[in-house]
Specification:
Umud Fragment, subunit A, 8-stranded antiparallel sheet, alpha+beta, 14 strands, 210 residues, 16% helix, 2 domains, 2 helices
Length: 210
């Protein structure tokens, strides 16, 4: 009887672990996924070491075989990406990598930059989130960092930029992001670790990403 009871308890524990694992996979695949910010391209909105949760229901998401980059289908979203959304997506030049940037323009919009100022449909954007750390304005003949366009965003695509404008590798350099490759919209910071000071940034925990 004692052995049977031990087997029964062990079986219950294994079943609970398997069920919990399957639930976690379903949530990660279809609803919410955690990401870590590895670079400073979204400063000061997102700091290196911020851990964020991404909403995959709102914008839809590509559904891959778990822990692989093999796509099965795309789950439809509630709405399309819009200007101002901070999104995680598969990097167009290497789909195995995930990037996070802000949507600046959507399909049909005309976007351009003049001496660091961004214009969409001939209207200058008010961007309190944008950070410039280099006061030097690069001419168009040098590269597209400070002066580019105008370019028209194709339907089904978005134009994205990092908030840290002078230190972000984004649509200015490698082009548009297919909406089908967007994994979700950044939602909240659930953890933040400052590796330089080896300290938790308690003041950032719980902040909405916007």
């Amino acid at each position: 009887m004692s052995k049977q009871k031990k087997k029964s308890v062990l079986r219950e524990n294994i079943e609970a672990i398997v069920i919990a694992f399957l639930i976690a996979i379903v949530i990660r695949t279809f609803a919410v996924q955690a990401f870590k910010i590895p670079s400073g391209s979204m400063l000061s909105t997102l700091q290196i070491g911020d851990h964020i949760l991404v909403n995959k229901i709102l914008l839809g998401t590509p559904v891959d075989i778990p822990f692989t980059n093999i796509n099965l289908f795309r789950m439809p979203g509630i709405r399309e990406p819009k200007r101002g959304d901070i999104v995680v997506f598969k990097y167009p030049e290497d789909p195995k990598r995930d990037f996070i940037k802000r949507v600046i323009a959507a399909g049909g919009d005309v976007v351009e930059s003049k001496d660091k100022s961004v214009f969409v449909n001939n209207k200058k954007l008010t961007e309190p989130y944008a950070q410039h750390v280099d006061m030097f304005v690069k001419p168009r003949i040098m590269d597209k960092r400070d002066n580019f366009g105008p370019v028209t965003v194709p339907k089904g695509m978005v134009f994205v930029m990092g908030d840290n404008r002078d230190q972000s590798y984004d649509s200015r350099f490698w082009g548009f992001v297919d909406e089908k490759q967007i994994k979700g919209k950044a939602m909240i910071i659930y953890w933040s670790w400052d590796s330089d000071k080896t300290w938790v940034r308690f003041s950032r925990i719980g902040r909405l990403v916007q």
